[in-house]
Design goal:
Elements (H helix, E strand, L loop, with lengths): L5 H12 L35 H16 L4 H12 L8 H11 L9 E2 L16 H7 L5 H12 L3 E2 L1 H18 L6 H10 L4 H14 L4 H8 L5 H14 L5 H9 L4 H16 L14 H18 L1
Parallel strand pairs: 1-2
Length: 310
């Protein structure tokens, strides 16, 4: 039986991508000599093996689920706010505005930054933290509940359907990985049914066709792009994971090699592959990731909660 490794996998992918993050779609020059090891980061000024806001927010969400034994928007929002007022290692502008609203006393149901229009760029702050929801609420017979909690969590920071679709896509892929289900297809169908006008839906349709045609990961992902918006991040991350579903490190490294927002893409792929492959598939050298024992404990507690709720 696989040992749970969703949070561990997320943190490893995040920390591996951390040194190579850029604010645009450029590829960090140091990626050319990278061999898949932890390195310190100059952009975040963090030591090797240190994760960023992607995992920090996911941990806030996971710890809230464990403490409350359910999703509590009030508790989650309070944890996000406390994190934002401490030492967050990277925080997007949309999330920053939402945290300012919470600090002013705005309720969590109204704190999300409004984003208008179908084609407006939507950040990946909801997708990067959604993996714990896929662990706890993943149930093939009740995906409506998973959608409900993804919606509530996403709108704490990002008030836009695209952000909800991005969160749901990641959470659903984590759920499917835990159940040993094949990647992409069911997620593509669900997102298309519930968010038919979203770019996430159209991107996942492209990904599903490309996977069937065996299009190499780098060719497909170059077509989609590598910036930090949720459309490009989620579609490329899920495709990298789908191309090598039985391996942990290879899809994580491929996701980071695309450049741009490397830590977020690495974190999402790490969570999915940690779910699918388990701790046994992760080389011991990566146990040097920051807070490894804490993350293992969170994984175990999330799975205990999952067992009680399913």
């Amino acid at each position: 039986m696989r040992t749970p490794a969703v949070m561990v996998g997320q943190a490893i992918g995040d920390a591996l991508g951390m040194p190579f993050e850029t604010l645009d779609d450029k590829i960090h020059p140091d990626l050319a000599s990278w061999g898949g090891e932890f390195r310190p980061g100059t952009f975040h000024k963090l030591p090797a093996g240190h994760y960023t806001d992607d995992t920090e927010m996911a941990m806030c969400l996971a710890q809230s689920l464990i403490a409350c034994r359910e999703f509590s928007g009030k508790d989650v929002a309070a944890r996000y706010l406390a994190w934002s007022q401490d030492t967050p290692h990277g925080m997007g502008g949309t999330t920053r505005k939402a945290m300012a609203a919470l600090a002013r006393g705005v309720t969590w149901t109204l704190s999300g930054t409004p984003l208008f229009g179908v084609d407006v760029p939507v950040g990946s702050g909801t997708a990067m933290r959604a993996a714990p929801l896929g662990v706890v609420f993943g149930n093939s017979n009740n995906l409506t509940r998973l959608l409900e909690v993804c919606d509530m969590d996403a709108r704490i920071t990002h008030n836009h359907d695209e952000a909800v679709a991005a969160s749901m896509a990641v959470a659903m892929e984590v759920h499917k990985a835990l159940e040993g289900m094949p990647p992409l297809q069911a997620t593509c169908d669900f997102i298309n049914n519930h968010f038919p006008r979203s770019r996430i839906a159209s991107g996942l349709e492209l990904a599903e066709r490309a996977l069937a045609d065996r299009v190499p990961w780098h060719k497909f992902c170059q077509r989609i792009g590598n910036r930090g918006n949720c459309y490009q991040i989620v579609v490329t991350a899920l495709y990298c994971a789908a191309c090598d579903p039985d391996l942990f490190l290879t899809p994580v490294v491929n996701a980071i090699a695309l450049g741009g927002d490397t830590d977020t893409r690495g974190a999402i792929v790490g969570a999915i592959q940690g779910a699918r492959c388990g701790l046994e598939a992760i080389d011991a050298e990566y146990y040097a990731v920051q807070d490894f024992d804490v993350l293992r404990g969170i994984d175990c507690d999330l799975f205990a909660l999952r067992a009680n709720l399913l």
